[in-house]
């Protein structure tokens, strides 16, 4: 059979993209033909304005044939346009389906990867780490609070009222003690006075015997 009718065609099967491209090319060719018919119709229309009698009738018949041919071309173009729209819709559906399949495959792969990763996650270990972090945070807060505390003098600050009372009592003691008053009022005059233990000795003011004789001789 193959020797009689030839072997099967090895040409690649047409795809939607190829078919759409061919239709667009065919529609473009029809547009060129329709444009040529329009040019001829304008020429016939201009010519009929200057003609009379049989020539006008022949020109009108020719214009009618061109118009009928243009209508057939327009109908063919409309059918091809519908086919192209259907193929474009099919191409869009195919693209969407291809994208959906790719999305599903990606989700399956991601699901496998997530399962492997979740097997490596230990929830108990995570909870222990969280507990340790909370404990460390508490210790850190306690350390910061301790460092921010001020240093206080033992016994605390003296009471101002107690200081006022002690100052008043000290004033009473000063005025009640005569010795303190003499020290306060004597001033520089008391500094020249001899101490009591020197003035109490009677021999301190008497001159020595030799010195007394010399004094008498000088007096004579």
For this entry, give a set of tags.
220 residues; 0% strand
- Measured as a percent range, the helix fraction is over 70%
Look at the structure and give the mean pLDDT.
76
Give a quick account of the main beta sheet: strands, pairing sense, barrel closure.
Answer: none
Secondary structure category: mainly alpha
Element-by-element helix/strand order:
HHHHHHHH
Low-confidence stretches: none
How far apart the termini lie comes to: 191 Å
**Strand content of the residues, in percent?**
under 5%
DSSP strand tally: 0
- The number of helical elements comes to 8
- Overall geometry comes to elongated
Q: What is the CA-atom radius of gyration, in angstroms?
A: 66 Å
Keywords: Coiled coil
Region (Disordered): 1-21, 178-220
InterPro entries: Snf7_fam
Pfam family, one: Snf7
Provide a descriptive summary of the structure in words:
The chain has 220 residues and is mainly alpha-helical. It has eight helices and no strands. Helix 2 runs antiparallel to helix 3. The longest helix has 66 residues, at 54-119. The chain is elongated and about 160 Å long. The termini are far apart. 0% of the residues are buried.
